[in-house]
Amino acid sequence: MTRLLSLLVALTLSAPAVAQAPPVRVSLQTSEGAIVVELDAAHAPVTTANFLRYVDQKRFDGAVFYRAMKIGADGGLIQGGTNNDPKRVLPPVAHEPTSATGLRHTDGTLSMARYAPGTATGDFFITLGAAPFLDASAADPGFAAFGHVVAGMDVVKRILAAPVSATRGEGVMRGQMIEAPVAIVAARRTP
Predict the structure, then answer these.
(1) HSE, side-chain direction, 13 A CA sphere, residue 182
(2) Is 189 within 8 Å of 57 (Cβ atoms)?
(3) Mean pLDDT per 10-residue section of the chain, whose length is 191 residues
(4) Cα–Cα distances in Å, from 27 out to 35, 36, 60, 90, 151?
(5) pTM of the full structure
């Protein structure tokens, strides 16, 4: 038994280290400036792959940030993406709840917008401030966090501060639609 254990230890120590894939970053060039996000494919592979399909197929180019939801004095979220444009939308992906990924909605989290679990397509949001109510719980599947902002939180703040329409939007989004949506000029992978 001791000899077998010694052999296993020797094999483990001599085995080549498995290189972890470098994190993927995407730059969202907006009319207000650049927002750079880092995606977490290790914890949210399905959601990350979905977002990258939109980036690689340039489906976010010309899309907009169209929603600014304020929470408290300094927090909230901004939402953008395909806005259900049938020419841009790809099939929905499976839901990756934060209870499965271990990710949380903290300041600067990138997450998928959706109606029901399994309906996320090409709309996403970025949080400003912690938003634990968006995490999965026993009573709520929450939203699929899959990355975070690494540069451009000043741009996120400017978009959140944009004037909103008092009458546009349906249901909970009424009064949260940005009067002059902020253009996503281009979305590209960055080194």
Answers:
(1) 25
(2) no
(3) 41 44 90 98 97 98 97 93 95 97 98 96 98 96 98 98 91 91 98 85
(4) 6, 4, 11, 21, 9
(5) 0.88
